[in-house]
Specification:
seven-stranded mixed β-sheet, about 15% strand, alpha/beta
Amino acid sequence: MTGTEASGARAQNFIRDIIDADLQSGKHTRVVTRFPPEPNGYLHIGHAKAICLNFGLAADYGGACHLRFDDTNPETEDVEYVDAIQRDIRWLGFDWADKLFFASDYFDEFYEHAERLVQRGRAYVDSLSDEQIREHRGSLTSPGVPSPYRSRSPDENLDLLRRMRHGEFPDGAHVLRGIGNLEAANMKMRDPLLYRIRHADHYRTGRKWCIYPMYDYAHPLSDAIEGVTHSICTLEFENNRELYDWVLAACETAARPQQIEFARLNLGYTVMSKRKLLRLVEDRRVDGWDDPRMPTLAGLRRRGVTPESIRAFCDLIGVARANSLVDVGKLDFSVRDDLNRRAPRVMCVVRPLRVVLDDIPPGQVEEFEAPSFPPDVGKPGTRRVPLSRVIYIDRDDFQADPQPGFHRLAPGREVRLRYAGTIRCREVSTDSRTGEPLELRCSYRPGAGDGGEASGGRAGKGVQGVIHWVSAEKSLACEVNLYDRLFTAERPDDGADVVAQLNQHSLDAVTGCRVEPSVLDAPIGSRFQFERLGYFTLDSRSGAAGALVFNRVIALRDSSARGRVESAQVAGEVEAPRQKSAKADTRPPRKSRAEVRERLRERSPELTAKLERFTGELALDREQAELLSSDLDLAAFFEESVAAGARPAAAANWVLNELVGQLGGRALDALPFGGRQLGTLVRLVEDGTLSSAGGKEVLTEMLAGAGEPEMIIERRSLRQMSDTSTIEPLVDQVIAAHPDHVTRYRAGKTGLLGFLVGQVMKASGGAANPERVQELLRAKLG
């Protein structure tokens, strides 16, 4: 199957051309890629491109993508980064199933290769200092000079290497170098470094090792050990390709992965160096790796950016051979486009100005039904917006002495309250010292529904404009974090000091804000469009006196041309887009999945009954049950899955964690399959017919309308091998092919079980049930 056939609408690129040719020629029968981060920092938006590329290619070609931590530097690596990287990849929407590896698992095998290189005269122990080694390498215009230790005999080198291994020498006393070409144009080939001494604790191996392999030595060997077919990396490793191939050839590995380079993501106003980002964290220039201003995936997640928008951005920019600077506006577009379809609308007043409506009696509260989404989004859902005698409007929506072109509230003027009636300003109370308005007294003329979605936001005849507002009595206290770009320069990486490029106005934390009450029960991480202000996410409930804290994900329009944060104009920087509909969509919510509200169940005894059944009879945990019982269609879909034979907890996980995340704003009734088909898929995964990773591949095809899960499994040959009679010969074959590993395993090196399992999985083309493979290996190895 070619990449074009496998990926449907995905654009062809030069990497897919290479893979297509390899499959057609028979060079490979299955594609295996890998994402190999060093656990020395958090992933950033640049890594997202590599993640989407490697995992996406593997999925499109029916292969596998490994997650491997290239952890060869004990001085900079930490388990915190390992955990964070796994968390970020899963959030982005990818899973490595049982293909989690660590370069540190191969340290014994790396060392065995090193001894063989020495014995074959392909490597030597050098005792020059780092500075002397650099001098002996020569320059671009002059060849290298042989080290005086290059002529040591294999026996002498082997003795020194083993003594290095046993910790007899201090850091820097010796290094192991390959014997390359000292006249090579590629400086990396002039006797490359393979091992150095580091007396440091490794976060996984502790003090077991005091010599550690260089990245350029460990990386190709790791790829070969794992059976990677296409080692895809960014262009800065182009000069390393010759050394990559040299290591594989010198070590005489059976597998010979192919290194392919593509252009890294260079994004405007963004730093892509983990080292520089670490400096900002350590110097407390930002509030940790997940500061919403940081370009890390953790920071983007906390800011409220969705994984779907990042994946869409990576598809948008594509894959190229040459480096270029990507306009940050493309990322902003992807974020806005995604949030426009998923973020329900609410009103929030960032800088409140008190307004008394004299025509509304004290204590009277009127409610208006307001749509959660505009007609062009096409999603159902409404919320109740209360209007009381005292309301708040934004200070920027009033001017005592209106400037030309100002079309909002002023003394004697009339404006429309969004979704409600009109108000006219009669009286202004001001601060005697500053002259700032403190309170407005206004008349109120009813007109429910006007000025909202029904009128497309238009003010109406004789009315100056439409403004947003909240009830003083019913609204909720909140704090709003308004974020701007972290760096002022478009290419902050070009400067020597990124601190000098920091935007000192990248955060405006505004307190005393008010938001409408419909967000009261929203879970942390919920996203909303604050009308006229932008898209926001609920970050916490830990503001002053328990106030809600919202982070602005992005403004409704790009205001970067201003060159700075103009906080005093936030509320009025964007007007609501003119709507096309002539009538407000006031239908009651019927299929909303985004809003999980207790008030829905209060209005629907049927939903309440679903919740009780899900937590009782089906024994789901409370959170899953509440999400599934937030909508009758979603609840019915889940029940159909269970009726098809899926275990309730497993069906709930697939519906909530796999299916809902891929709907992308579509309603359930728009799917080309129903709950029965999903339940069948879940059951096949549960009974071992299909692996978890295979199940996700099948779901992707089902979403594209490819038919019943059983048909897809047969067509794609995804059925998992679970019977002993089929797997056992492969296990015997692997045991016979790796007698040294078997001997060391039986001597107590139990960590080698993962290697042996991997070899069986490779021999089966990834089809064997890994749990059954482990059982057979343990039984046969005693």
